[in-house]
Each structure stands twice: as structure tokens, then as C-alpha cells.
Amino acid sequence: MSRLVVVSNRVALPGESRAGGLAVALQAALDETGGLWFGWSGKIDPSHSGKLHEQHDGNIRYVTIDLSRRDHADYYNGFANRSLWPLLHFRVDLVDYSRETWAAYRRVNALFAEKLAPLLRDDDMVWIHDYHLIPLAALLREHGVRCKLGFFLHVPMPSSDLLAALPQHSRLFEGLSAYDLVGFQTSRDLERFQDYVRLFGRGDVISPGVLETAGGRRLHAGAFPISIDTAHIAQQAGEAVENSSVRRLKDSLSGRALAIGVDRLDYSKGLPERFRAFARYLQRHPQQLGKLTYLQIAPVSRGDVAEYRALREELEQLAGHINGGHAEPDWTPMRYVNRNYAHPTLTGFYRLARVGLVTPLRDGMNLVAKEFVAAQDPEDPGVLVLSTFAGAARELDSALLVNPYDLDGVADAIATAMRMHRDERRERWQAMMGTLRTHDITAWRRDYLAALASA
Ligand SMILES: O=P(O)(O)OC[C@H]1O[C@H](O[C@H]2O[C@H](CO)[C@@H](O)[C@H](O)[C@H]2O)[C@H](O)[C@@H](O)[C@@H]1O
Ligand SMILES: O=c1ccn([C@@H]2O[C@H](COP(=O)(O)OP(=O)(O)O)[C@@H](O)[C@H]2O)c(=O)[nH]1
Questions:
Q1: Residue 297 beta carbon below 6 angstroms from any ligand 2 atom
Q2: What domains can you pick out in the chain, each with its CATH number?
Q3: Which of 9, 118, 166, 355 is a plausible cystine mate for 259, CB 3.0–4.6 Å?
Q4: What is the tens place of the pLDDT at every residue in 291-328?
Q5: Does 124 participate in catalysis according to the annotation?
Q6: Rounded to the nearest whole angstrom, what is the distance from the C-alpha of residue 361 to the centroid of ligand 2?
Q7: Which UniProt keywords apply (predicted)?
Q8: Strand pairing class (355-358; 257-262)
Q9: For residue range 77-125, what is the model confidence (pLDDT) as tens digits?
């Protein structure tokens, strides 16, 4: 059997707990197969030594590299998170492009290729992840790498007119043609990529999922919705009643229902809109006042980037304003927490909640939505309120689907979730859980790697 080599900017090193679906999912996938995980160490090395760090945990070998201060600023915070992230989330208004950060992006990809190539064997299956590393396959080929190279995009693929707004878009996206298989989260993402190849990439769509690139190379592409370790999360949530943080949260609610949101503090997650929708719920449904407490967990993410800092300030103001306007001496409508929680606690929090609020403006998948469902008590499940703009909405279509820009609609969905009878909650939950049991993280990895093997 071939060895699996996973390459991603973000690596979940042993013992690390940090918000972010890519690392959570790849950890679960590698736990099953073992293999090599190569990527950024998460550290900055002012001496730019380029030294590799290596550690082992079970059957996984981790090889990581530090970034120089300049590369961290220009590649990670710069081109990846201030050019590509907003672009791929349909926020052209926030795209900040410069030739300097584009050069840093290519430089770090070249560094990854130089360090990774000597570690590879011809029969490896190399699976490269996300927008940070689009050029990596072409650069590895220049180093003589001959094994199968697959790519998976965790974020949305926007429409081609938006992509074309990025200077250098042709050079960047041409890089995808060096892969054997390019995977997307949903069939909509795949369709938009095919449109881009036809309209701006000088290529052709031979049949759905089979493309001919400008250079005449055949490229396979497909939709592979990422998922969670469903059985493990369900079990973890069932055991979480023992967890002291979960018990403390339960006691603190004094019998009130809980609504929960869990998101990195990121503008793609629609948090200001969600806070406003919650305020709208309090205004539109006065008969429910005092019956529901909303807990928003939002660990700080990419805190060096100006847009993320501005968002943090905005949310602090909004949370203060909402509580100031609606709190009673014995009830605070919302609790806003910037801490990161480990999964055993989070799954217990999900299980306590009557309402799960997942309302991103755009999201590749959103694993929190899936985790919320998997963590519910089958006899008395909570209700998921889910944005139609999350990739997860395609599979979790028994959730209460909302448009996150429609504040009244989100407000009313919260009220509906509060009123929903147990039979309807169970029916909706069973439909979603059925999907998650079949389409779990194992199925995702297996389907993708099988497609890569035959590409
Ligand atoms: O690595 P960070 O900069 O700290 O950011 C965390 C991750 O955010 C994004 O996650 C995406 O992947 C999830 C799993 O496929 C998906 O459910 C979610 O919709 C995406 O936003 C990003 O794409 C990752 O590269 C980051 O590691
Ligand atoms: O305090 C937290 C907040 C989030 N997460 C995890 O971070 C991931 C977030 O993934 P998602 O796909 O929802 O969004 P992303 O952050 O990757 O955009 C999920 O597995 C969450 O359980 C976590 O472990 N602790």
C-alpha cells in the first residue's frame, strides 16, 4: 500500500488544540492510515535557518518548518490571508494585493518544494491542502517528483468573474493543472471551477470532472465533502456530562435553554450579522424573553491581520450593546467568549444546546455544523440553524436553513427552534445523522484517495 503524505500550511502537532477544521479533519484522517504530515510548524524563526523539525506520534511522522518573520507577514498574513482568503470567500472588497506578498507566496511554496521533495518516494500518494499551497505540485515536479499529487480546496471556489479580479490569477490557477486530481467541497464549487477553466483558463471541460488544460494536460476534478469522525464525536458528547466545564455551564443556565455558536473569529463566519439577528429575535419574540441564553465561542484567529482586529472590536461593542439593552438582573442574554476549547468540552457544550447557530456568509464546509448534529442526544436533540452559504447545507438539508443576511429570518428560525416539538426535532436530526454516519471522515479520505489512485 502506498504511503500517505499530507501537506498543509497548518499542522496539528501532537498535544496541540487549536480551532480550525482543516487540522481537525486531517488529524482524524491520518490517525487511521498513518503516514507523513508536512507543513508549517506554527512558529517564526528569526534566524531563517530553514531547519526541519521532526517528531513521531503513533504511526504519524510530522515534519515541519518554521517561517521567517517576513514570510509569516507576507505569505501567511499577506497573500494567503489578505488576498486569497477574502477573494475565495467572495469578498473582493477586502482583497489586498501586492507584488511583494505574491512573491513571498511563491517563495514559501518553493521552500516547501525544496524541503519536501527529498522526503518523497515514487509510490507515495501526496495530498496537498488548501489555498496556501496551490503552486506546490508544479514546483515539486520541477524537483523530479513523480508520484501522484492531489489537491483539495477547503474553502469555496467563487465565480470566475470574481477570480479574474486577482492580478496574476492565470499564473496562480494554472498551477492546478500540475495535479492529478483537484478536489472541492461541493459540486457548486466544482462547477464554478469548470467555468473558470473554460472562460479564463483557455481549457476545456471534456466531461463533468474531466478537464483539458491550456497545456493539453488532462486533469481530474471532483466534489468530496469533508466530514467528521461521527461515531467518535457522538460517543465523546455522550460522555461529556462528566466534564466539569460542561457541568458548570449546565448549572449556570438555571434551567434556561442554550443557543450555541462556535467559530473562529473570522469575517466569513457572519458573526456581526448573527449578533444582530439575535438582538432581532429578542425584539420580535418578546414572549421568549428570558428563556434562552446565547453562548458564542469565538477564539481569536489571524489576530495580526487588520480586518480581524476590526471585527473583534465590532463584536465586543455589539455584545455589550445587546446585553446592555436586554439583560435583567438575573439574566444575561448573550455570553461572548474568545477562548479556544478542546473537543471533549465542545462536544458536551453542543449537546447541552437547544439551538446550534451556524450562519456564515460563506464557508467551504463548516465542520461545527456537523459536530453539533453528531453530538446531540438522540432522544432529545437540539435544532441546527444553518446558513445556506455553508458547504454543509448541501448535506444537512433537514436543518432550519437560513439566509444570514436576512436578520428577521434568522431571528424567526431561532424562535421556531425554541418551539419545535420533540418529534419534529428527532425526525430532522435522524435524517442528518443518517447522512453523517455514512459520509464521515473515513469515507471522505477513502473516496478522495481512491479517486486519486485512479486519476
Ligand atoms: O490555519 P488558520 O489560518 O488558523 O485557519 C484555520 C483553517 O481555516 C480554514 O478552514 C477550512 O477548512 C474546513 C475543513 O475543510 C472547512 O470546514 C471550513 O469551511 C474552511 O474554512 C482554512 O481553509 C484552513 O486552511 C485553515 O487551516
Ligand atoms: O474553541 C474551539 C473552536 C473551534 N474548534 C474546532 O475548529 C474546527 C472549526 O472548523 P470549521 O470547519 O467549522 O471552520 P474553520 O475554522 O476551519 O473555518 C471545528 O472542528 C471545531 O470543533 C475547536 O476545536 N475549539
A1: yes
A2: 4-227+441-454 (3.40.50.2000), 231-438 (3.40.50.2000)
A3: 355
A4: 999 999 999 999 999 999 999 999 999 999 999 999 99
A5: no
A6: 16
A7: Glycosyltransferase, Transferase
A8: parallel
A9: 999 999 999 999 999 999 999 999 999 999 999 999 999 999 999 999 9
